[in-house]
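Submission checklist for the structure archive. All mandatory fields must be present; incomplete records are returned to the submitter.

[x] Identifier: Chromosome segregation ATPase
[x] Organism: Prauserella sediminis
[x] Residue count: 381
[x] Sequence attached
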Amino acid sequence: MSAESATVHVTDPQAARCGFRHCREPLPPPGPRGGRPYEFCPDRRWPGDKTCKQLAAAEHALRTALGDTDPPTALREATDTFAETARQVLEPLQTLGGALDDVTARMQDELNAAATRADEADAAAEEARRAEAEAEQRADEALRLRDEAVAEADRARADADAAQDTAQQATAAADAAALAQARAEATAEAAADRARTAEDQNRVVRARVDELTERLDELRGQLAERTGERDTAQAALDEHRARSRDLEQSLTERLTTATAQLDETRDALRQASQRERDAAQRAEELARRLDEALAAQQQADQDLSSVRGELADLRGEVERLRTRVAESDRERSATDGVLRRVHRAVLDAGDDPATLRELVLRELLSRDAPSGDVPPDGEGS
């Protein structure tokens, strides 16, 4: 019986599948020129660079050598073990690939988010530093304006004090002139009293008339002189009063101007104080924003630490998956070794079914035994 007689021929190309019982993949249709349909996969390769057709022929030869149309239980178990091992190896690899893709995506998202938060924190800190510098400049300008306003107020206060001193001096001079006038009036009244006394004495003592007349003339002369002095003093007093009024008016105007300047200076001081308070409030606001930026940066650092911890956990999981893959590779290598020994036994047995059965059974029985425990040829039969 040839290897081709053991295959299943399917007439429908659309439903044709590979003749190797462990493959059974759909076969491609014939070419555009027609021809014989495919019986086995034309391009698929198995471990050892074996095709489906070669493996089907080896399986058929083994079944023929064993004298059974169905594969023996040990061989069937070996092939099933190989298929299960291949599936177990493939599943962790697929799981590992999916996990690595998820980890990569999550790491990329977390790193992008952390970088974005770090950039925002840096921008906020830079804005806070710039605003703080502007606030300091404005505070310095406010202090300079306040110093200038204080100096201007001091100058205005000095001018007001000087004007007040001048007004006091003018008032003192006016008081002195009034006192002199009062004295002159008192002197005139005293002279009049003496004249009346002289007239009374003239009626009493005529002898003294001439003397009293002379005395009266003298007194009249003195009175005239005093009257002239009084008139002069009165004119001087009037002139002084006029000058005092002019000076008082000038001082009043200067005092009004100084008061206005002082009010303006006070307004400037109040405005400077208000600007200083506003600058202080802005500085406090900027300090608060800086604290918030620092808190955000600390939160970003904590998030980055958490991401690093998750990355370490994922690395541990990857290491465990790699260990499982290595164990699967070792199991697959052991299974491949058994299959290679079975295949080598099939090739070495030739056409002797008994020898083939003995070699195959010995290889299957020595699958898990050490190499030193394999029985010699002939003892197993």
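[x] Structure attached
Curator remark: The mean pLDDT is 76. Helices lie at 52-66, 73-204, 209-349, 353-365.
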